[in-house]
Specification:
Blueprint: E1 7-11, E2 22-27, E3 33-40, E4 43-48, E5 73-74, E6 81-82, E7 89-91, E8 101-107, E9 110-114, E10 120-121
Antiparallel strand pairs: 1-9, 2-3, 2-10, 3-4, 4-8, 5-6, 6-7, 8-9
Bound molecules: FE2/S2 (inorganic) cluster.
Length: 123
Amino acid sequence: MTDWTWLRLCDSHELAERGRAIRFAIDSPQGAGSAFVLRWRGRAHAYINRCQHIPMEMDWSPGQFLDEAGIEIVCATHGAAYAPDTGRCVGGPCRGRSLVALRVEEREGTVWWLPDANAWPAG
Ligand code: FES
C-alpha cells in the first residue's frame, strides 16, 4: 500500500476560466497515459485523459478539451460530451459513463493533486 502525498501541478493563475487545461503524465491500472486539470466556474477539476467510449486521449489540440462555448468537455474523436464539474457523460457515445476524476485542491495560489489507486505520477 502506498501512502500518497499531495503533488504540485501548477500555479492557480495558470488555469484560466474555461481556458486551456494543463496536462500531466500519469500511470494507472490501465497503463501509462495523461491527465488534465482545468478551471470551470472558478474551480479546478482534474480527470484522466481517457474517453469512456474508446480509451483514447480526448483533446482537440494539447490541453484543449472544452467545446467552443466552454460548456462541455468534448472528445475530439467522436464527440462524447462530459460535464466539466462532474465528468459525467452528458451526450454522445459515452453512454452514461463518467471520466475518472482526480482529487485536486487549490491552496495559496497553487493547484495540488492527491494521487490514488486510479492514477499516480508516471515513472
Ligand atoms: S473515443 Fe471519445 S467519443 Fe469516441
